[in-house]
Design a protein that fits this description.
121 residues, alpha+beta, five-stranded mixed β-barrel, ATP_synth_F1_dsu/esu_N
Length: 121
């Protein structure tokens, strides 16, 4: 099966890098699915979005992403997020607390994205 190289990078760290069969991400234009050989595209990621990667081994890597860009070529996908968290690092209770206590729209969007990522994992 065809594969592509994928890098998921936040401002401060590389969260995941490897080969994959499928990447899906929420952009400002809607959700996009990318498979090897996809036409080149540049998309802006939504605040509080989710990125899902199906690895070459069939495993799923899911992350909450907070803004940034998705760059696609025929053989690579690069996700450059302003901030991102893999689902195994998300504190669900903390995200729920933000939803019930915060008035800040950016914090609320990020918390919703974290919870959606955990649900999709």
């Amino acid at each position: 099966m065809a594969e592509m190289t994928v890098d998921l990078v936040a401002v401060e760290e590389r969260l995941w890098s490897g080969t994959a069969r499928l990447v899906s991400a929420q952009t400002t234009e809607g959700e996009i699915g990318v498979m090897p050989g996809h036409e080149p595209v540049l998309g802006q990621l939504v605040e509080g979005g989710v990125v899902s990667i199906t690895t070459a081994d069939g495993e799923r890597v899911v992350a909450a992403v907070h803004g940034g860009f998705l760059s696609v070529t025929a053989t690579t996908v690069t996700i450059l997020a302003e901030a991102a968290e893999l689902t195994e690092n998300i504190d669900v209770e903390s995200a729920r607390a933000v939803l019930s206590d915060s008035q800040d729209e950016a914090e609320i969007a990020a918390a919703r994205g974290r919870l959606r990522a955990v649900e999709r994992a």
